[in-house]
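Peptidase inhibitor 16 structure dump, as promised
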Amino acid sequence: MYQDVVLRSAGLWVILSLAVGQLTEQEILNIVDLHNELRSQVQPSAAFMQKVVWDEAIRLVAEGYAAKCIWDHNPDLEDLTMGENLFVGTGPFNATKAVMDWFNENLDYNYNTNDCAEDKMCGHYTQLVWANTTKIGCASYFCDTLEKLHFEKATLLICDYYPQGNIEGQKPYESGESCSKCPEECENNICVMENLFPPFEDTDPKSTQMSTEPKVQEPTVVYVETKERDMLTKIISQGSTVQSVSASLLMLFWLLAALVL
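structure tokens r here:
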């Protein structure tokens, strides 16, 4: 009897361990709220800056890739109109700190010239405050090892953005009096619009996106540059696969829990 309980408990632990590092509901709320708060505080102020909202389909794409524990951009984003920010840390995970580290790149960004200081990275910041971005989805995953970076016991955070930012030759937003060019409502210096999905533009993102390279900062807090792509519809098909796997794991979790109880 004791052995059966131990085995069942071990099985339950395996299922629970699969969820280690995943974002909590509170962390998700914090990430979205912090994005909007920071977007409302850009300097110079933005005449048009859209409010971002959480998107589950985008989250599923980020979650599926984060679980692979690869220190590189998601190759599936090649066909998506999405931007991507990545962060990894070996210490206690703090989603707020990760987002703030991305935003603090503004210290090395010159809005007037639309340039980043030499040997610095600003792409996380410009993607985070890209005015036309309306939807985000993020996921975290605790990795025993991280391919291509040789880190152990590290938490990987991935945030994907739609539509993508960092279009070469464009500034992240138009400066001016806050909300002065909002077509609809303004809320805390942010434009709130009914149609959060703008129509696809007849452009080829592969010809306009900025070229970026991964860069390691410090051993305990490192992150890579952003990347953008085209065609949002692939998110749904990819997300369905990840969601079905997650549903199966959840069902197995409850079955094991019932056995233990």
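The first strand starts at residue 53 and ends at 54.
lmk if u need the other ones
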